[in-house]
Amino acid sequence: MGLLATSRAALAAVLDPILALGRLVAWISIGLMTIIILVQVVFRYLLGNALPWPDEAARFLMLWMTALIAPSAYRQGGFVSIDLVSSMLPRRIGGALALILLLLALIVLLTGVSLGLKHVNSGWLFASSTLRVPMDLIGMKAFKIKLAWMYLSLLVGIILLAAVNLELILKAVTRLIEPDALPEDKEIPGTK
Known about the structure:
Layout: H1 3-46, H2 54-75, H3 84-88, H4 91-123, E1 127-133, E2 143-146, H5 148-177
Antiparallel strand pairs: 1-2
Helix pairs in contact: 1-2, 1-5, 2-5, 4-5
């Protein structure tokens, strides 16, 4: 196995458990979102007294769910793509085109990391209007959750997408140089 294939395999070995944990947390998040929204429906329409926090809590969970599931979807080709042109080209030229597009995507993602860092840093200045940690249950003063924790989902998602993109770049380069060096892609359990 060549250096590129070995590097890709090492990166995949690091990403596999991280993305598996992300998928698990995403599933838990969507379950909690569903429960929170149902609680809000009961309070708003059956009891006539809407709660102030469910909308923001569901949004918080939705952002984290998206950030943690998107890298797995990207890795498995779950994003919308138009591959008509590359499928009509000879294998090597189509592979080179795919590599160029992956490199452009990496530039965009690295720019996103920079912007995400700035966004998270500004989030420490502001607190949620309705979400708070109920420390008063244990005799301490409750405090509102900083918006940076919500904004952090953007940064985490982009970093994970960039890592997956790097893996896809290594895979594309390996396929161009050593087409037989890579085993077939394995399916992620629970995705089909």
